[in-house]
Amino acid sequence: MKRCIALALAAVIVGGAPLMAHDDVTNxxxxxxxxxxVDISLASQWLRQMASExxxxxxxFAEKSVATLMARAEALPELFAAQERDHxxxxxxxxxxxxxxxxxxxxxxxxxxxxxxxxxxxxxSATLKPLLDSCTACHKTYRISK
Length: 146
Ligand code: HEC
Description:
Blueprint: H1 2-15, H2 28-51, H3 59-79, H4 94-97, H5 99-114, H6 121-127, H7 129-142
Helix pairs in contact: 2-3, 2-6, 3-5, 5-7
The structure holds heme C.
Heme C binds next to helix 2, helix 5 and helix 7.
């Protein structure tokens, strides 16, 4: 029971919903793209936590989070190139039927990540919204939430 509470707390501290373990994903190509999203999700949560001072501000850590976002975003076009399937995947068919729109979504995220000002907690807070909006915008069309 104690362990459960500790785990639940850890999930809250990491930022909301516990992230999926991907043990049930059998297609390695799908696993790789889901893992990229998990990395993106973690990096954006760290920035959010620093912005709201739930996590102590650290400039190197903030810079590393932005670098992770940029690197993973850069990999998305390739990771989502082939229409790989898996029962656990949440990718909508539009990823492949509207590739141009999907790539525009990736670009929007890259631009928003580059625009995060990592000088202070307050500056992250003031510049983070476009990044979080870019997640929602893409998920609305290209991700099916299960
Ligand atoms: C260009 C489109 C796009 C952008 C931008 C995007 N995502 Fe995603 N995201 C997806 C798609 C598509 C999936 C489903 C992938 C699958 O299951 O095959 C996904 C899945 C996820 C998942 C679930 C991963 C898992 O374990 O299955 C998380 C968490 C996530 N995204 C977080 C984020 C966050 C946070 C951001 C913004 C910082 C973001 N995403 C930006 C398209 C995007």
